[in-house]
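Q&A log
Question type: sequence-to-structure
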Amino acid sequence: MTAPIPDAPIPDAPTPDAIARRIAGFIADTTGLPPDDIEGDVNLGAYGLTSTAAVTLIGVLEDAFTLTLSPTLIFEHPTIDELAHAVAGHAA
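Response status: OK
Response body:
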C-alpha cells in the first residue's frame, strides 16, 4: 500500500484507491502501524480500531471528500477495500 495522502480535502470525486490510502493513513496514525503493514482485505477490527475510532474515521472521510456518510457504513463494509468502494459510490 502506498503512503497516506495529506489531510487536505480532495476536490474531485475520489477514487477507491485515494479513499483506501486515506483510510490506511488514519489506521497508521491511530495505531502506530507502518502504512505498508496495513492490508486492504483485512477486517478493520483486526487493527484494533475501536467503535469510537470507526466513527472518527467516518468523520475524517466526510471532511476529506466533502461527503455525508452514515456512521454505520464502516460496520457494513468492514475492510479498507470494501469501505473505500462504498465511500466512492457515495461520492459518484
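Response note: The chain has a mean pLDDT of 88.
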